[in-house]
């Protein structure tokens, strides 16, 4: 029997980075729903958190799951659920694009802590600043 354990750190933002998730209570409700719904779909969400305009998910994907399908199931269903339950004043949408990177077992605790501390982290740095910093670092490493 094969043993496969692949962790992916997903990040996606709200459409046009609109801060739809503007209260801690709303964010916690959405994160809880994402985790519960994923579990029903046999997707293991290890950690989920975010801020007013984005979401981070650490997911362990199975051999028969693809990054694209997992992302589609989590994002699509959660935006449908948010709108169905009228949790936002305007129509809620996630941005089409997303970021996904594999995480080694040795880095799991670091990524978990990073995801857990999103509220504190984004009180010091915006999502856009963080994104720009990451992309600059990534491009530098690729060259």
UniProtKB/TrEMBL annotation:
Span of domain Transposase IS200-like: 3-118
Annotated protein name in UniProt: IS200/IS605 family transposase
GO-annotated biological processes: DNA transposition
Entry-linked Pfam families: Y1_Tnp
SUPFAM superfamilies tied to this protein: Transposase IS200-like
Species for this entry: Flavobacterium cellulosilyticum
GO molecular function: DNA binding; transposase activity
Organism lineage string: Bacteria, Pseudomonadati, Bacteroidota, Flavobacteriia, Flavobacteriales
